[in-house]
Amino acid sequence: MPDKVAPAEHQVLPPKAKEQSVKLKKELGLLDGVSIIVGVIVGAGIFVSPHGVLDKSGSIGFSLIIWIFSGLLCLVGALCYAELGTMIPKSGGDYAYISDAFGPLPAFLYLWVALFILVPTGNAITALTFAIYILKPFWPDCEPNYEAVRLLAAVVTCLLTAINCYNVKWATRIQDIFTGTKIFALIVIIGAGFWHLFAIGPENLINPMGGTNASPGYIAVAVYSGLFSYSGWNYLNFVTEELKDPYRNLPRAICISLPLITIIYVLANFSYFIVLTKQEFLTSTAVAVTFGGKLLGPMSWIMPFFVACSTFGALNGAIFASSRLFFVGARNGHLPNAIALINIRNLTPMPALIFLCIITLALLIPKDIDGLITYVSFVEAVFITMSVSGLLWLRYKRPDLHRPIKVSLWLPILFLVICIFLVTVPCYVKPLEVGSAIMIILSGIPVYWIFVQWQKKPKWLENASHNFNVSCAKLFMCVSEEKDD
């Protein structure tokens, strides 16, 4: 499917296109980097997966330990990714690192599952959560109508895709504004919870470790639910080429964002447990709304509003960052070249954004969010394990490679050991999800050999690929990225 865009396509473009350099610009500063990490992480997860963490861990105390552990694990992983991102300063995140360490086939397999599982499924979960929370006040005593939820999720996905196609600065300003809004929402939850603690007392916190489930498999699944709430900590690595002074701003953004988010998450869950009983917590499908309804009285409407703002910002950040992954994959010949084109007026990867939007819309049908979380988290853990293995392999294979940041060796080793545990142990707890994920990963191998590795493709396939790329270039007014001299 990869194909070079025909020279003829440039003839349909206006002369103005030749007056500027057509490439993605370095427009992201430190604040934008922090906003992307915080904005993507603080989204659906903190309002959806608290249920999963408590359900699998079995007790309030142990679930809080899981939240702390998940945050520290992500911080260690993010520090390892800071070394990878400054050593390999390319956009694409894990795709770029796996490619440099292990070659094109493993990198393609990551791209393959990211294309059909990781990114669009995560975006679909976030969009559905936005719709559920924004519609919750209209269905106060029952679940919102699922068709209305799905329609609203599709509308907001298309709206944010359009904004990202039109202007990078618009997308980053939206990210900054809604990041501030969601942090404020969590501060309201924390403040209200502690007010309740001092006014009523810790009646729900008696015997916090009662009912703890210490089975290794269930611990791993509980950690998956926690990690889902932190997912997105590596998204800034997807846009390294658009980050100003990445050698300084990438690690700084990581070191500011992850500790801040961990503290806020633990305090927010603590506040939930202060106000809600364990049974209320487990039976609620919208924990923050239940929390607000019980504590805030006539002001309880602000919780669905704030949660909707939070997921709106998270979806915007995920669309912005993840579209660059597919852009880089197409630029390297692992996807149709049309996805690596840049709009000449707005200098945005418009085809990649639209392609991601279409797949996300197709994944808005499933209703089992908890099942999707386990499914996505397992696949993500597999390739994060591979990326960190690549860091250790490159330390051995290419010791002289320039490393502006070099973390202590025990950090990637510790992170790798924990990731291996998270990948292997759940196999007997969730065999269906794990088996399905492995099959989808392996299904990318024949796709790679047919569409990427196979050099003597049939003429009809080459013509179809060429015509598709040229049609996209004309339709979206796009050209290939200009190379630096």
TrEMBL record:
One Pfam family of this chain: AA_permease_2
Membrane topology (UniProt): Multi-pass membrane protein
Gene3D superfamilies: Amino acid/polyamine transporter I
Transmembrane regions: 28-48, 60-82, 109-136, 148-168, 180-198, 218-238, 250-275, 301-327, 347-366, 372-395, 407-428, 434-452
Stored InterPro entries: AA/rel_permease1, AminoAcid_Transporter
Keywords: Cell membrane, Membrane, Transmembrane, Transmembrane helix, Transport
Main location: membrane
UniProt subcellular location: Cell membrane
GO molecular function, one term: L-amino acid transmembrane transporter activity
GO cellular component: plasma membrane
Superkingdom in the source lineage: Eukaryota
Family named by the database record: Belongs to the amino acid-polyamine-organocation (APC) superfamily. L-type amino acid transporter (LAT) (TC 2.A.3.8) family.
Protein name as annotated: Large neutral amino acids transporter small subunit 2
Organism field: Cotesia glomerata (Lepidopteran parasitic wasp)
